Amino acid sequence: MESLLQDLRYGVRMLLKKPGFTVVAVLTLALGIGANTAIFSFMNSLFLRPLPFAEPDQLVRLYGEDSEGRRFDVFSYANYVDIRDRSQSFAGLAAHDYVSVNLSTGAGAESVQGEIVTGNYFSMLGANAMAGRTLLDEDDSAPGAHPVVVISHRLWQRRFGASPNAVGAKIYLNGHPFTIVGVMPEEFRGAYQAIVADFWAPMMMHEQVRPRGTPITQRSWGWLNGTGRLKPNVTREQAQAEIAQIAGQLEQEYPQVNKGMRFELLQASALPEQFGESVSGLLGFFMGVVLLVLLVACANIASLLLSRVMARRPELAIRQSLGATRGRLMQQWLTESLLLAVLGGAAGLLVAIWMSEGLMSLVPPDFEEFSPALSLDVRVLGFTFLVSLLTGVGCGLLPALRASKTDVISALKEGSATASGSVLGSRLQQVFVVAQMAVCSVLLIVAGLLLRSLQESASFNPGFNSDNMLLATVDLSRNGYSEAQGRNFYRQLTERLRSLPGASEATFAIVVPLGTSKESRGYIIPGHVPAPGRTYFSIHSNVVGPEYFTTMGIPLLSGREFDARDAEAGARPVVIINETMAKRFWPDQDPVGRSVQMKKDGPAIEIIGVARDIKYYSLGEEPLPYVYGSFAQFYSPSVTLQVRTAGDPKSLMRALQKEVEGLDPNVAIRGLTTLADLRQVPLFPSRAMAMVSSLFGLLAVGLTALGLYGILSYSVSQRKREVGIRMALGAQAADIFKLIIRQGLTITLIGIGIGLIGSLALTRFLSSLLFGISPTDPLTFAVIAVSLLGVALVACFVPARRATKVDPMIALRHE
Hints:
Layout: H1 2-17, H2 19-48, E1 59-65, E2 71-72, H3 77-86, E3 90-104, E4 109-117, H4 121-125, E5 131-132, E6 148-151, H5 153-160, E7 170-173, E8 176-183, E9 199-202, H6 206-209, E10 225-230, H7 236-253, H8 255-258, E11 262-267, H9 273-311, H10 313-321, H11 326-360, H12 378-404, H13 408-412, H14 420-459, E12 469-475, H15 483-498, E13 503-509, E14 520-523, E15 537-544, H16 548-552, E16 556-559, E17 574-578, H17 579-585, E18 595-596, E19 605-611, E20 626-630, E21 638-645, H18 653-663, E22 669-674, H19 675-678, H20 684-718, H21 720-728, H22 733-762, H23 778-804, H24 808-814
Parallel strand pairs: 4-9, 6-8, 15-20, 17-19
Antiparallel strand pairs: 1-2, 1-10, 1-11, 3-4, 3-7, 3-10, 5-8, 6-9, 7-8, 12-21, 12-22, 13-21, 14-15, 16-19, 17-20, 18-19
């Protein structure tokens, strides 16, 4: 301990003695460690940190699984009740589901997200209200009987100004009055901590909160999530066995709706499990990138420390001659390295906070409910400290070994700078730069491929016109509109929107191309037999408003668009299909005039047109059959308005809101965006990965260039005698310049070559994220290689120029 304290004091003095070196080293390590801490804080929040409830290990999720092993997160209320009542493994089993509602307090409405939950939801989680109370079993005892609600802390602040009188006040959900009975603490977000909710209403109020027109007791209506708490001393495996037995009973009792149905218990986490795989994959990519950057930083610091070893060889030789052992010298050197790493880790915490905010800014506005509870808790601090220690050892181990092997005689001789030890140190530094250059090549090639893919997707024609299109979603079912009232509302709204200054066209549909929603319906097609076990073809579909194809810029290849004839009473049902469906079911024929059916005994539906194929869900999808129905014949209370504008569509956002409020101030809109912005949502993983790999790739390049500059500068200082002799023998300044440049470019080319080989192997895993280019795109590889060579030339220029200024007489006299 005494020697350790001695080394700490000495290490602090040495770092203060070279403030420039210390600042550069600490900042370099802070960026590397801070980046890793930022990514780990996300992983900790979403997957590692226990949920903030009592005995979180006892909390499980109940998932459905069909006969083919596909897992899904919904099951019916009737199945939930049977599992809850028959199981003996749970201390509590609650059902819940996210819902979006129009919320108002008497003046204007806004669309907010909350949860509809069973009465035992809060008691099962062990959560208590900050003010008032939570929901109770009696609040969930009869349909529509108890219009009470618990609100979130943020809604309490936003709508009620944190007033203590909020409890007992009324709010309106979809126009229905609810009494606030409780306000939850700020840290409570619900069963899923990463998805925020603003209110919690009883399950039995589902007709008011989530009007569907379907009885809650209908066993075939799967729509709920389940969270349960196991009894003490009951394992998840035991509970799973019991659930399997109950599933078998339900299959026998209700074979029509529960055939092949299985249930699976998973450990509860902060994120809905259906998103866990994709989010963990994205975070895994980010962690791989920042680990590579940390390795580059470590190599850079190790190279700097090796230079310090060479500079301090006389000091080390004196220590050895006075009796210092190799172990003692290694301890002293590692102590200095660890001091740097700990300082870098402390600064890295500040970097982590800044980077976490930056990463959150990458989340699309459509995912605003995604809000992980990031914090620098004990686990994150422990991770940072461990990474700092490993970094300190990693940076200092080789320099410490070199310091402990100092040749006392040669170090004390004049001219020791040319001794073999310094040559070995230079070779190690060259190895570090080669590794750094290889890592930079991989990071920048990955970034380049993703950026080129995004560029291709931006210029790609998806088959419709996405320019100057304003979108907004309206759901009239929340406000209790009848079908006749809804049709009249949308007719008036469309007319108002078309008359807005700056608006050229307006329509609506239930599905927006390249959006996140999907719709499919079953069709019987005469002359064609569906797959075994099915009685119909499941075909992706949409319901569209008047002048949809004109507004969207989707040409009809044959037939006509929907018009006023289709809205007349008693009009024959009609649809428009796309060209892929026409080629699949009516090859070499004109499908216009032919018919399909939606039910076995349903009326014939006439095909009146064939529309050109577009990209419906992603830019890389294969052509798929598609059917368009007319809103005049297939009513939907929820549609997305689509307004074509002459200029910037965002300039009409407020005007669109006013037109909706003018028809009904209690109708709220959501998803107010542009079609161009919506196109970017499916590209979020690629964009996030491209930005992260680009940012950290450029950071790695900067560190590598600094390392290459340092090596060549050190090499020039050590080779003054050699340079003096060459110049004395007739070498010109240009020859010396080329000599140093050649040394730097040789290191660079070796590193780039290794990086290109590694990239060829790694980028194949990106093929699913790339659009329009190959994972081995030669242009990207060539541009990155040439760019890195250019950076290396810049880093080599100053040391090479300095070498040409060496005075032969001064250099030889010094030696």
